[in-house]
């Protein structure tokens, strides 16, 4: 039986150097930026969590399609950006929003394939849902 | 003036296939597993957020040293694991805890360097704090 390969997720790993100072130390701005990036990529926002370090910010957003994360080191003008999106949504739409706001002078960016699954071709119709991760919510997350 | 290169963070990206079924659909177990992994790597736990999809679980833990994330696809026995740790802590200690519990049949794992900063050597004493990210907490995260 012939087989087919599916990739469950795409993960953009971006190193942004020389970013806009106004953002890197501001937890509210960073969280709003991640949420806006998620919205512009048509992702389903499930929850967000942001923490203000001294110095620096961590912001994470759970989306139905996986997650977005930023960690910043304002003392080095650096932001570590992760955009992990499964299904058919385009993570680069979220990336562009972040890039436009942080205005990095230099970027190193890679897209990783996450979850490469090999299935019998005959089962493919059963697995159409791979491209649209179900976002049915549980009653309440454990915390 | 001579210059020195610092790496702010180490990021383990792990693809775990053929994982233990008991974990992949259980949000409580997955969150406890991430928290235990963080503790075993001596990371400073700041916040966690877990979400139960049908099927699958997303669990994220913010640590003072960055974050841990798992997304699971129980229908494929697959878990996407990210362990991003800055400073001197060893992300492989957290990885090993997750590996031992999920018992994957097959793993693809990579360690990425995050935040490679070049500084004048003379400034190094000022930047000793790079290796111990400050975890002074803000009064209250924005949400």
Number of domains of chain A: 1
- Topology pattern of chain A, helix = H, strand = E: EHHEEEEHE
| Main sheet: strands, sense, barrel of chain A | 6 strands, antiparallel
The N- to C-terminal Cα distance of chain A equals 45 Å
Assembly state:
homodimer
Percentage of residues assigned to helices of chain A? 10-25%
Give the overall average pLDDT of chain A: 87
Global Rg of chain A:
17 Å
What is the structural class of chain A? alpha+beta
Please count the helical segments of chain A.
3
Q: What's the number of extended β-strand segments of chain A?
A: 6
The CATH topology of chain A turns out to be S-adenosylmethionine decarboxylase
Major protein interface:
A-B, 48 and 48 residues
Low-confidence stretches of chain A: 126-143
Order of neighbouring strands in the sheet with most strands of chain A: 2-3-4-5-1-6
According to CATH, the homologous superfamily of chain A is S-adenosylmethionine decarboxylase
Share of residues in strands of chain A = 35-45%
* CATH architecture classification name of chain A: 4-Layer Sandwich
> Which outline of chain A best applies?
elongated
């Amino acid at each position: 039986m012939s087989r087919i390969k599916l990739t469950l997720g795409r993960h953009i790993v971006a190193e942004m150097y020389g970013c806009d100072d106004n953002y890197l130390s501001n937890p509210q701005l960073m969280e709003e930026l991640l949420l806006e990036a998620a919205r512009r990529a048509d992702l389903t926002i499930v929850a967000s969590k942001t923490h203000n370090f001294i110095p620096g910010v961590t912001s994470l957003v759970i989306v139905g399609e996986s997650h977005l994360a930023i960690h910043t080191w304002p003392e080095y003008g650096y932001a570590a950006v992760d955009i992990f999106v499964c299904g058919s949504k385009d993570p680069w739409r979220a990336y562009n929003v972040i890039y436009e706001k942080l205005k990095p002078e230099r970027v190193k960016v890679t897209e990783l394939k996450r979850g490469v699954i090999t299935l019998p071709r005959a089962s493919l119709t059963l697995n159409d849902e791979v491209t649209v991760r179900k976002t049915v919510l549980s009653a309440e997350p454990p915390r």
